[in-house]
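Hey all, quick one. A colleague (J.T.) asked me to put the guanosine-5'-triphosphate job into the tracker so the inputs and the structure tokens live in one place instead of scattered across chat threads. No bug as far as I know, just bookkeeping. Sequence used:
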Amino acid sequence: MKITSCRFEQAAGRPQDEPRFRGPCVVLLGRSNVGKSTLINRLVNATGLARTSSQPGRTQTINFYRVNESWFFVDLPGYGYAKVPVAVRRAWGPMVEGFLDRARDRIAMALLVVDARRQPVDSDLQMREWLQARRIPYVVAAVKSDKLSASERARAARALEQGFGASTGADRPVMISSRDASGIRELWKQVDTVLSATGTR
Ligand code: GTP
Ligand code: MG
């Protein structure tokens, strides 16, 4: 896909703040601090568009980035990090689950973002189950793979796939580095395939 424009459209903490434009959404799900916001910046080649941090809990609202004026990357607050303040953790459920339920019909796909070096946590598996139950296409995007050597990377990919139960080919992770952009082309290919099936450009 050729990106002709990408801009921050809206931060929504409440349903009434969600954008009026009801285009298809590609949502980024994953643990806090795993690298969701950084991945959006890399995908659209715009450092600093989505705010990132070395501290977990950076993204606290549902952030909509409108691409080519026609669809959204949706950056969500991450889940499951003990160091995130309790109030932020409590807000996650109603905010994110509420959005996912409301937006179900326009979620074109999900990027399930995990750390290439780690096994999926329970919340990752629950998220994957939620997606499967609703037949929402997803890709396991394993970021921070630049922290692994080439041989470790292959091993880590297999371990991750097994961690997800290797139930379908969908769980074969795309090994990504948002730092050096490896795997980004492959990830775009998968996003393109799904979006073009929905007629989105
Ligand atoms: P929340 O908003 O708290 O849910 O976190 P997030 O998932 O949006 O994480 P964010 O993008 O803010 O990144 C967290 C940290 O990981 C930052 O310090 C990033 O620079 C770093 N990071 C993200 N992706 C990569 C990657 O592919 N490689 C390396 N080396 N660091 C990364
Ligand atoms: Mg974030």
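Adding what we noticed when we looked at it: The two ends are 7 Å apart (CA to CA). Residues 86-102 form the longest helix (17 residues).
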